[in-house]
Design a protein that fits this description.
Family: Belongs to the small heat shock protein (HSP20) family.
Keywords: Stress response
Protein name: Hsp20 family protein
Structural class: mainly beta
Organism: Zobellella aerophila
CATH topology of the largest domain: Immunoglobulin-like
Shape: elongated
Distance between the termini: 61 Å
Pfam families: HSP20
CATH class of the largest domain: Mainly Beta
Length: 143
């Protein structure tokens, strides 16, 4: 993968240094990600999103979802002590724990999560406060 230079973003944009850092980190760490578990990010409407993760074999009690500041962390841990030793001829289903992190944009809130047919659905919504919404500025008369 070729390396991109994001330094022009730093000098031409004010207040977007965090965005440029996130893009640079994503470009650098993209090749080190193991891709487990696979996931989709879906746009449901203008301000609603859904992350769907394939977590087949995990029970609700084995999954943990945490939202802290602008990071969403999804962890899965399998209980290995209670399962008997199995003799697989072929093992294609991963039974390992995982931790997947998502960087959330400002004003993105997690509204709910559900586990259906081996897919973990996490619903997100963008709630922009009134103070952050664009407003029209009237031009006054100096006379």
């Amino acid at each position: 993968m070729s390396r991109f230079d994001f330094s022009p973003l730093y000098r031409s944009a004010i207040g977007f240094d965090r965005l440029a850092s996130l893009m640079e980190n994503a470009a650098n760490s993209g090749s080190t990600s193991n891709g487990y578990p696979p996931y989709n990010i879906e746009l449901l409407s203008e301000n609603q999103y859904r992350i769907s993760m394939a977590v087949a074999g995990f029970a609700r009690e084995e999954l943990d979802i945490t939202s802290h500041e602008n990071t969403l962390i999804v962890k899965g841990s399998k209980e290995q002590a209670e399962q008997p030793q199995k003799n697989f001829l072929y093992q294609g289903i991963a039974e390992r724990g995982f931790e997947r992190r998502f960087q959330l944009a400002d004003h993105i809130k997690v509204t709910g999560a559900d586990l259906v047919n081996g897919l973990l659905h996490i619903d997100l919504v963008r709630e922009v406060p009134e103070a952050a919404k664009p407003r029209t500025i009237a031009i006054g008369n100096s006379q």
